[in-house]
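Let's practice the habit of predicting before peeking. Look at the sequence and jot down your guess about where helices and strands might fall. Then scroll down.
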Amino acid sequence: MVKIGIVSNINMDLLPGYLKSHLTEWSDDVEFYVAGFNQVSQEVLMPTSGLKTFQPDVVILFVDIEEYLWDILTDSRDINKATSMLDDLLGLIRQYAESFKYVLVNDGVVRDIFDGLNDWLAYDLVDYYNRGLREIDERYDNMHVARYGALIRRYGWNNLYSDKMMYLGSIRFSKLGFKKIAEMYASYIRAIWGKTKKVLVLDADNVLWGGIIGEDGIEGIKLDAQKEGRIYRDFQRIVRLLSSKGIPLAINSKNNEYDVREVLQKHPYMVLKEDDFAVMKINWRDKASNLQEIAEEMNLGVDSFVFVDDSPFERSLVREKLPQVVVPEFPQDVATLPVWISDIEKRYFPKVYVTDDDRKRKDMYKAQVQRSQFMKSASNIEDYLRGLEMKMYVNVDDISAVKRIAQLTQRTNQFNMTTKRYTEQDIKEFMESDNYHVFHMRLVDRFGDNGIVGVVIVKKEDKEAEIDTFLMSCRVIGREAERAFMWFVEKYLADEGVEFVYAKYIPTKKNKLIMSKYEDLNYSLVKEADGIKEYTKKLPDNMIEKPEWIEVIHNG
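Done guessing? Here is the structure:
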C-alpha cells in the first residue's frame, strides 16, 4: 500500500482522483488523506492531527504562495512583515520535512497579472521564498521541491487555472491543471519508489536525424544548426542530458552498420557519439530480437526498456513480441521531438536526485556488455568467474553511501529477500543506531567498476542478529558475489560476538529466482507458511565459505 497525504492552503480535493490513475500502474493499493481547507500549520503542529494519524508515505504540500502575499501586496506593502511571514511559512515546511517520511512541496509562482501592475515586490518576495525552499531541499534528503513553475511556463496560466472555480469553491485549477499537476507529482512519487525504466533505446533514421542514411548519404540527412535539421540536433542534446543523469542509451536500427557509425563519427552536427551508447545493434534483424539481445547483454529484463522508433510497423512488432517494453507513440509533428523526449523522461525516467553511480551508469553497462562477450568465449563458468578478477569492497555504516543504499532498497526486486523499501532518513537512523549495521558492497572487475550493488541491513540484540534486508543489483547476479558478501557479513557479526543469525524470505512476483538462496548459503529452514520462509544459522560453525576467485576488502 502507498499512503499519500495532501495538504494545501487552497482546495485540492480533486487531486486524488487525477493522481490515482497514474499510481495504479505500479501499485494496486493507493490510499489518500486530504487535509481540511487551509490546515497547513495545524496538520504538522498538532500531535494527533489527521495527517500524523494517517502516517503517510508521502506528503504533498501544495502551497499557493499568492494566497499568502495578496494582503501585503494590496495593503501595507511592508517588506519586513512579508519576509517575516514567509520565514514562518518556511519554518512550517521544515517541520514537515522533520515529521514525515517524504515531503513534496511546490516552488512558488505568482500569476502574470502582476506583470501589468509592474509589481516587482511580488516577484522579489517569491524569489525570497524559493531561495528558502532550495536551502531546505539541500538540508533534508526526504524533501523535494516539485517544479510547479516549470509546469506553468510550459502550459500557461490560462490553460491550467480556472478563475470561475476559484471564486466558486477555492478550486484554483482547471481539469487540465489538475491533470498536469497529478502527472508532475506522480513522476516524483515513481522516482521515490524506484518505479522507473532503465534504458532508452533509439532507432537511427528519422529519430537521431531526418531521412534515411542508406539512401540520402551523410550529406543528405537532416541534421543541422538551423531549420528542420536543428530539430534533430536539439533532440540529441536533450537525450545526451538524460544520459548524463544516468539513463543508459542504446541504438536498435535496421541499417548498414558502417553507414550509421560514419554519421556518429564524422557528421559535424552529431551531438551523440559512439561512446554515448552502451550497446548498438545495427543490422537487418527484426527489432524485437535485437531488443531481447540488448537485454541479455546488459543483464536486464526487457521491462527495463523504453523503445523509440518512428515506424508504426516496428512499434507494433515490438509491442506484440515484447509487451513488457514501453513503446510510446512517435509524434506526428517532428518539430515537437525535443519537448516530446523531455516528456518521455518525466514519465518513464523520473529522478529526485542523481547519485555518483547514476553518472557512471553508461560505463557500467558498457562494461557489462564486455563481460557478456567474455563469458561466451570462456570454456566454463569457473574460468569465466576467475577471469573476471573480481574485488569486493565492503563498507559498514558508511554515511556517504546513504543515497545509493536507499535507492537500491526502493528499486531492487529480483534479488531482494524481503523487499522492504527504505528512505534515506531510515538508512541514516539504522546507521546511527547501536542495534543495527548497514553493510554495502562495491564490486570491481577487469572490465570496470559496477558501483554499489549489494546491501545487507542487520538488527542486533546481544548474541543474536536478524537480517532485515539482503539485496543485490541484478547486474551482478550469477557471479557468486552474494556468497562473498554474506561471508563478510557473517564474519563481522561473529567477531562482534553474535552466535545466532535469523533470516527471512518474503515472496513477491519478481523474487522467485532467490526463493532458496538462504538454503544455498547454509541457513536452516525452521518455518514456512504462505510462501514466507524463516531461517536460522549458528556462528561461526556454519559460516559460508568465500569463493576463492573474489578478493574481499574491508573498506572501513
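How did you do? The chain has a mean pLDDT of 91.
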